[in-house]
Amino acid sequence: MPEQTQVLRIKRQESPNSEPYYEEFEIPYLAHHNIISMLMEIRRNPVTRQGKRVAPVVFDANCLEEVCGSCTMVINGRVRQGCSQLADSLNGPVTIEPMSKFPVIRDLWVDRSKMFDYLKKAHAWIPIDGTYDLGPGPRIAPSVQEFAYLFSRCMTCGCCLEACPQVNSHSKFMGAAVIGQVYLMSQHPTGKMNLDERLDAMMSEGGVADCGNAQNCVEVCPKEIPLTTAIGAVGRQTSIKWLRDLFMK
Amino acid sequence: MPGHHIIVGGGLAGLTAAMKLAEQGEQVDLFSIVPVKRSHSVCAQGGINGAVNTKGEGDSPMIHFDDTIYGGDFLAHQPPVKAMCDAAPAIIYLFDRMGVMFNRTPEGLLDFRRFGGTKHHRTAFAGATTGQQLLYALDEQVRRYEASGLLRKFEGWEMLSLVQDESGDCRGIVAIDTRSLEMRAFPADTTLIATGGPGLVYGRSTQSLVNTGSAASACYQAGATYANGEFIQVHPTAMQGEDKFRLISESIRGEGGRVWTYRDGKPWYFLEEMYPAYGNLVPRDIATRAIHKVVFEMKLGIDGNPLVYLDVSHLDPEELNRKVAGVLEIYEKFAGQDPRKVPMKIFPAMHYSMGGLWVDYHQQTNIPGLFAAGECEFQYHGANRLGANSLLSCIHGGNIAEPAMIGYAKSHKSAASSTIFDQELSLQRESFDKIFKMNGPENAFALWRELGDIMTENVTVVRHNDKLKTTDDKLLEFKERWGRIGLNDKGKWANQEVLFVRQLWNMLELARPITLGALNRNESRGAHYKPEFPERDDEKFMKTTMAAWSSDGPRFSWEPVDVSLIKPRPRRYDVEKSASEPKAA
After folding, report:
1. Which of A230, A231, A216 is nearest to A101 (CA)?
2. Is residue B73 a contact partner of residue B382, using CB atoms and an 8 Å limit?
3. Which residues of chain B make contact with A32, given a CB cutoff of 8 A?
4. What does the pLDDT look like over B109-163, one tens digit per residue?
5. What is the pTM of this model?
6. How many Å apart are CA B394 and CA B375, to the nearest integer?
7. How far from A249 is each of A212, A244, A245, CA to CA, in Å?
8. Which of A249, B172, B177, B526 is least crowded, fewest Cβ atoms below 10 Å from its Cβ?
9. Which A residues in the span 56-85 are in contact with B, Cβ-Cβ below 8 Å?
10. pLDDT digit string, tens, across residues A53-97
């Protein structure tokens, strides 16, 4: 019986401005393989299916437990983390591509720094007075904690931006992730106090109003964060603030 | 005049120091290979220890201190450990204020769970992703300083080496942009290494891919002492994988998970039988050796494989989802089975290095101006770390480093000559030029696999002197073969292979003090177990192993342990601690 193998078709690109191309690799099938362990297999023997020795595929990966967000890529047309895509659940050849909503650095490695810039713009932090000892924090009901915890697991992986039709080269929409973080901060008793600062960011260019309600974000989120709930709530908060600002002028 | 500081590493230790320094108005340059939010700290699942004593159990920092020293088998210097345990409640409160969504009691107070090696509910937790939550809180605070211009981040940069002046003092670093491969020298008054553990020296471990130990190794090769390298914690419960071993958190046992295997056709809960006082919540080294014994000596692994069961199928699924959903999801995702219904299959895996760069009580290494905090230093865990003490030691180490770094910067103000930076930069450029020319038959990633396999086989749970010797011979052979690596990628942009070849050399250098440290230590203590020497030998070995790099291999010396606060006593987990020992002084 011939050895079972797995064929990988990988979109490659040598630098941000060079032309992309596809290369195929065939590696021995192993039951516990996932996309990253298969890319590691290629590193140990970087030879294409056609027998050509090439540079190993460049990819971004770190924790391999789907908690750091690094290895986000498009696998058979669907955006997700490569580490948690098991080989067992793949049928036939698998196509692996870099995310398309971010600049490619090389091969599967993309530059997601704009997502961190959005967090900066949105003031997504709790403004504490200082790190010196001020005793316990505010009391929080378990139900509030459980709800907020859902949003606190966002790993800035970019799946929601990749899947969003409103995130494209003609729009400045910041995407669902940062809206989820704005909503998270408003769940915390201290974070609530400077909600207005964050709403200002959400009312500026690329803010919550640019959401087109496609709801793809919530479909692809690997942490199943209720992003559309956040978008709805932040949208309402900004409307109220807009009216308030109008009358306070 | 504010001081100027470099921090290498953006996990809990590095970000804590960055936040504290920026708060004091100091200038900070923060270097991290990955965006800091993707650092390995995110992997810590279970929680963070602090004797807040909200459960009416009479817990106190003193008992936390005693548990930590006892769990570490009396190898940690006691004064800094006591300071850490004293500081722990305030650390938890600070993170609570910074917005970490810790689990709560019905009254809205912080909830605490039980972890291994203690009888108290002392571990604060945020679901089963506590490390991620703590890291994100710091990431947010550091971003706040970055937005206000007090701190510069160099994400995607890797530290290559230290820049040292004529007297050997650290004056900054040379780092490389992992995208453009541009190398630059960065001067600073002080440098903090906070680069985490050396998991990749063991090939596959529970650690992340950035945890090569390369930066710590570069410091060691530059003259920093590497201490207690032989103390490697093997976590008892991990999933076996092709790319890594995924941790199944100790919190699973804290919430009632049981470890068992079949004996005579019936489930045998061997930890509960062997250690009735602590049961499934014995410390990690004890649980790991018990699993090893059951699998290899008694040949009772599942279907003859090196696996045993970790079982939560008897517990309430809703309670599990509330407290440990994140852990169970990992198992479900990577094994394709629901652990709420089917027992998990697990085996021990390399998890944590208790050893690391030697530091004084102010986190300074023996190289003036060079500091270290977090898993890359040796100070807080002795011969074995207790669960949920690592997040604490990272944050505490960062806290302690801050005033020490400011103090050093104030008292050492003379300018360094620019020639030392140019010299180090050309040295690093030459070494990369050499790697780019490598044209031999060896594949760097395949060689790394071999390194990992032999280190995992011989320098983890059970250690034999003959095998340690063979391993060191192998390391020398690997170093020779490293010279025969052929580079597949000659590209000058985002070339991960060329960076890895250099990291691999540093791993090989670091593997030697780990292996030879184990060879030299003829006793059993904490995570270090030698069947030939099954007892702890305080007279000869209650000492810190100190390794200094030389071109002929590590040179060893030993430093006595400060046991001035708690008198050493035998460590046992089959009986209650209070029944076996005098209370802490």
Report:
1. A216
2. yes
3. 240-242
4. 999 999 888 899 999 999 889 999 999 999 999 999 999 898 999 999 999 999 9
5. 0.96
6. 7
7. 30, 9, 6
8. A249
9. 56, 58, 61-70, 83-84
10. 999 999 999 999 999 999 999 999 999 999 999 988 888 899 999
